[in-house]
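Researcher: Quick test of sequence recovery. Tokens follow.
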């Protein structure tokens, strides 16, 4: 019964977080921001206000495919956010610019996450191979190696949390100080940003639960 509850949680938590961000985004993507600025215009203004004239803005396909590419020094916005002057579009654009500002200021957690990225990628791909092989053949050393790899991937997700929350805080500060949002829009913008942040929290929580589960399995193997 406990295993059923556990796997139900693993399934429900990400679905809940995803539905929350989609609900907030769909609602506020239909609400025009008072500055009447598209996501691209919001991004350009905040970048220029912070002296980041060399950071480019590009349109990309897909919904909520927005991201900042530190290697190319480019803020990439999904078509809807790039062109539409909505509260949601402005919030998402400002958030991604928040990452560009972090990059320009060498924000410590962003640098740490970038350094962890290749290790985390390797750990994510290799961990289950070692874990499953170790459990099938009852080789605790293989399980231990798998746990180390998985821990690297989990650490990456945990470090992502302060990076994302900091970018959202920067987004709010920039949008308020520049007059892009006013009055009730602050509350609406926070709803979009907070919902998006919950997807990272949910992902980190699920990953941490999985790590704990395998650690307990490893401990039981050694007890036996």
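Model:
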């Amino acid at each position: 019964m406990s295993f059923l509850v556990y796997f139900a949680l693993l399934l429900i938590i990400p679905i809940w977080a995803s539905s929350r961000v989609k609900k907030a985004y769909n609602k506020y993507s239909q609400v025009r921001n008072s500055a009447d600025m598209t996501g691209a215009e919001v991004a350009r203004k905040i970048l220029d206000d912070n002296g980041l004239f060399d950071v480019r803005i590009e349109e990309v396909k897909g919904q909520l495919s927005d991201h900042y590419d530190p290697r190319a020094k480019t803020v990439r916005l999904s078509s809807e956010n790039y062109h539409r002057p909505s509260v949601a579009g402005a919030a998402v654009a400002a958030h991604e610019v928040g990452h560009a500002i972090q990059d320009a200021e060498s924000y410590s957690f962003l640098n740490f996450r970038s350094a962890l990225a290749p290790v985390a990628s390797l750990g994510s791909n290799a961990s289950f191979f070692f874990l499953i092989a170790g459990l099938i053949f009852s080789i605790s050393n293989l399980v231990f190696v798998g746990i180390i790899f998985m821990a690297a991937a989990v650490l990456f997700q945990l470090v992502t949390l302060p990076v994302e929350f900091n970018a959202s805080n920067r987004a709010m500060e920039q949008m308020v100080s520049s007059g892009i949002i006013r009055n009730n829009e602050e509350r609406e913008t926070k709803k979009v940003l907070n919902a998006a942040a919950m997807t990272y929290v949910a992902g980190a929580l699920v990953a941490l639960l999985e790590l704990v589960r395998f650690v307990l399995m490893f401990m039981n193997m050694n007890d036996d």
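The first strand starts at residue 56 and ends at 60.
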